Each structure stands twice: as structure tokens, then as C-alpha cells.
């Protein structure tokens, strides 16, 4: 396998592991700082001793900083949790959904063993037609026409099901056709040598030629393809095929003429073949034939059956004929024996080929999964263990018989060295924390780490603490928090991890539209959550970047959406995980109905506060659009005392001229904390109502000719078009500048050939749309799963599609916009 492209890593500091260089540097600094007062730099000097010990400790830090990358991510057993660190194997990250015709051929050939070849062609309006050839029956087994027809119908149903689950955005399955075949035979003169059984050679000739005639696809194991030098990005390009690596031959069209030179080349590559003197194709009665798909029939190579067919292909040693046209009884017996033995060998080859197509490929030995040494990184061993015992700071301490001054001097030196040792211990703890920093852990709240020194690390240090060891650890952590720019460092680390996959989260413009998080830390945490969601789902987002949703599965109240919609939802910072859900439902649950400000009479909002606090199910109250979008902003809600002494919650509509709307009275025992609850309720309601729906126009096309449902859609309405429906009543989505950002984000993340139309609907229009959109999704799924009732299901789907089409066309005339 060829080496992967990479950027060479920066080498370790050459002085970091050089004790003498560190010692010289330290001595130079000491001389510059205190050369006038300290002139003795001999080895016996206590200051030089401390310098030696600290220099030696730095070499240990440098040594632990130069481990392999795997060692910092591995656990104690040496294994790396790839999912935790967003590291994905080639077979997971490189494949994608089928895009090209070649992708579709390889996918269907892999998924459906009953076919030998398949072709995909564009049929217009975003539809693809699929034509397939059934596989050869086992040698000597005759397939009746009725049985073959039933087999073809079953394969066609499976192709439609498989293709429907893998379709691209704005793509659907059109006609599926089983190609009929015409039988041909090999005729020619082939010379072999005697080092291999002629029957095995004959079977090999027929097997390879028959596969070449009926299929332009070749299955190979991933291990063999990788051993031939294919890099991982090519090995797993396109859809992942579970049975092995599939390649295409030069014959890519069903009606392409069979190349005799190509067949001759295949035969000459067979072990045992010395020379091909002549080769052609003929009919069952021996007449010359040149198959090329004429009349819609696809050639199929047949194994000889009767005596005449057995004599068409001559296989012989040099100067000796193994199969001739002679009528001699001995030659006929030899020929029959050869064909009979070749049939046995051919059955074996066919069985092995079928087993290979049905066996799941093993990727166990394809590439070695990285592992670390599993060595601990954080444990700290104090340099004071290395000091001479006369200093009294190692594990032996100061003798009990020593005077108090000696004990005091030892404690002073120990405390003096503590500062250096605490920094070095923290350094090692940060090395151990690399695995946490470079992870997708959602509970991570720090990028720097510290550890408290105890007696096991540094002899007799705990008696010098002015607080308990646990309190010392807490104070160290408090210092760490003050100096830890966690959000900034975490964001940069995630950027690096995204860059491994060629992706970036560029939605910094979301900061401009921060209406829900007035506190900076909350807003920064929200942006980090968005980035982390993007990184956590990177495999799905890359693999399904052009995929449509599964219309054979339930879609409402689920994450069953197109790959583009899932990615756009993360980039826009939507707060709900289910991408296909009702955007009006949160309002209904709250018992609210949004109406324009001018439609509400004076005092009509006086019960909003009590309504939201009571949360009575089934009760519905109208709420002004401005109140919905702005009441949770700081300073918009306050409490006013009436002349009668009652406390009234009010909403500041505008500053100039100053205008307030009363929202209701505070009950006895309620205070200003209720304003915070009301503000949080409206803020949460706004976030839950944010989202969008994406409708593929291809799926809205009429399924039955002569449909009576009028929709007035032109021919350009269906192919490669989508409608994107947004709500316009939330705080962010009502902002015209954010609407431009949302439309730009959608357009940049859709496939380049798809044109979006945008709709920004009010609550009433959205409620109407979602009601019929959900009905349409149900009808679409029912039609996809329908068997004998396909006509009724298609008619019901056409009615639902026509209603949605009319709705979109009507809204398009009023408020829709395009992005070019």
C-alpha cells in the first residue's frame, strides 16, 4: 500500500533531552542574574546541586513529551477508544452514498447476488432507470421460462427496495427492467500443455469467458486490492460493498459488442493455455454470430450440451487433438469424458464464485488499528528523592537528634522547591489530560489540569500545608480555572479534529444573532455544542452528504431526513434533535396562537402571564407576535405598582414613544422571580419552534398517467428542485439578516445541481402546511411499501402531492424567494 500524504511533524526540542545543555543554559542565567554575589559554581555548591536536579527533572518532562501520538490517547491496556476521539477507520469515513452510475452498479451487484450485471441511466425529472441481467443458472440446470420470469420479478422488487434506501437527494427510481438473453457458444482451437488437467483448463476457459460476456463487474477481496497498492481513499470510494472490492471492466453498456480480442486475452492468461489459434462465437447449430445486444437480447455464453455443441471448441496438446470432429468412437468417448470432467470443475468454480459474493468481506487484517504503550503519564516522582541525604529533604528526612535549626532549614528548602515541583507535576497531569482534550466528551469543562502533591510524591510535604490536602487540591483547581481559557482552547481543538476530515464549522455569524443567550459563557457553550454535534456525527454527515431520506420508513418526529438537511440543522444551531417534526406543536402545547400585533385589542394580553403560569391543557390564548419574539430580552419585562396597590407584569413594547402592554397581575406571594420564569418560558418556546422542512419536488411528481388532480406545475417544477420551508415567528427566524444567512447556508450545503426555493411562513400557514405534509409522508411510505394495492396507493399519493404542490405554488407567488 502506498504511503499516505501527510505533513511531517515538528521534531522534539534537541536541548530538551540534553542534560548538559540544560545545565549550561541554567548556569548562564544564574551568572547573569547573580554573578556579583555568587561566584562559586562548582559541583559541590548547593545551588548547582539544585540546578542539576531541576535540569534532570526537565529531561524527564521532555522525554514524556516525545512519545508517539497513540500513547497519549491510549488507556492503561494500550487500546484507543476511536469513537471517543472521533477517529474513524477508512471503511467508515471514506465511503459515501451512490452518486454516479458506476456507484449504483457496484452497490446493486454487491447487495443482490441474483444479478450478474446492472446498468443505471438517467430518465429525466430526477429519475433513474435500472436494467439488470440475471445470473447464469448452475451448469446442467435448465430454468423454465415461468420460473425465470418469477425470479426476475422478485429481483426487480428487491432492486427497487435497495435502491430506494440509497437514493440521492432529488432522485428516485423509475423503471426496472430485466434484460432478456440469447444463447451463444464458444468455437475455436486452443492449444494447452500437459502440466495441468485439460478438463480443469476447459472449465477455466468457459468460466472466465462466460463471466466476461454476462458481467462487466469483478469482485475481489479488500486485502488483495490493498496488497496491489490501492490507497484507502480509492479502495473505499463510493458506496461500501460488504462482500469485497468491486471493479468495472471496459464493457459498460448492456448492448456493447463482445470483444473477441478481449476474450482471447483472458484465455491466454489462464494457467495451462499455450496458444489460442482461433476463437469465435456461434449459435447452437454452429453458425457464426456477432452478439452485440441486437433486438434487445443480451448475449449469454452456454456450456456445450449435445454432441454437436461439444465439438465446437477444440482443446489439444501440441500436435494432438483432444476434441475433434472425427466420428471415431474412441474420440467421442474421450470428448464426452473431457466435457463431463470439465462440467464438474465448472460447478466447483461457480460454487466458489457464488460463495464469494455471499460471504461478508473481512477487514480485520486490512489495516492495523493504532495502539499505545499504555504507560501512565501523570505520576510524579519528586526530585527531592535524588538529593544527598545530608540535605534532609528526601524520604529519610532529618535525624531526630538534629537541632531544631536543621529541621527548619530542611522545611524551608522543601517549601522553596515545592513551587518548581508543583509546576512539573501539573505539566505531567496535562500530558495525561490530552486524551480528554482531544475527545468528544460532552462533560469536559477544562483544558488545563492540575494535581496536588502528597507525601507519596514529595516526602513530608503535607505537614507544610496550611490547609487540608483536599482543600489544597481545590485551591489549585480554582487557580487553574482562573487561568484556563477553556472555551477558546476547546473550540480550536475541535477545529483541528474537524480539519482531519476536510471540514470546518464556519458559522461564526451565529454570534451576531445571539438572541437567546445574553450571558457570553452560555452563548459560547452553545456554539461549542454545535461544533461538537458536527464532529460527533461526522461519519453520517460525510457519508450521507448527498443522500435523500428513507421514504420507506416513518419520517415524522424522527431524524429520518436527507443528509443535507441534517448538516444544515447543525450549522444553523437548531436546538431540537429531531429534524422532521412539527414546528407548531410547541405553541399548541403551550396553548398559544400567534397573531399580528394589530389584530389584538387593547388589554387583550392581560391574561398571558396567568395563562403561561397555569399551563392549562386544552386552553388556547392569542399572543402578539412582538411579545413572542422580544419579551425574554433583558429589560423588556418589569413589575408596575397600580394606584390600588396591585403588582402588574408588563411588557415594554418600545422606548420612544414609551409603550407598555399589561400581561397580568402577580398573585399574593409571587415576586420578581416570576418574571424570570416567564422570560425563560418564552425563550424556550422560541427555540423549540425553530427548524425547517425540506421537500424534494421529484417525489411530488404524478405517479399515474391521466391524473385528474390539477396542480398547474410546469415541467421544470419537478427535476432537481427543493422547497425549504421556515417559520418566521421566532426571534431569530424573523430577523431579515438571519433569513439571508439561513438561505445562504442551505444553498452552500445542497448539491450544486439542486435549486432551492425558500418559504418563510407564519404560524397559520405553517400549521396548514405541516398537516398536509405529514399526510403526504404517510402516503409516500404506503406507496413505497404497497404490493397488490399499488394503484390505490399511487392515487392517494397523487392527491396528497397535488395539494402540497398547489400550496407551494400559491405561497411561491406570495412570499417565496430563490437563491442563485
Automatic annotation (TrEMBL):
Keywords: Coiled coil
Residue ranges the record marks as coiled coil: 339-366
Entry superkingdom: Bacteria
Protein name: Toxin
Species this protein is from: Massilia frigida
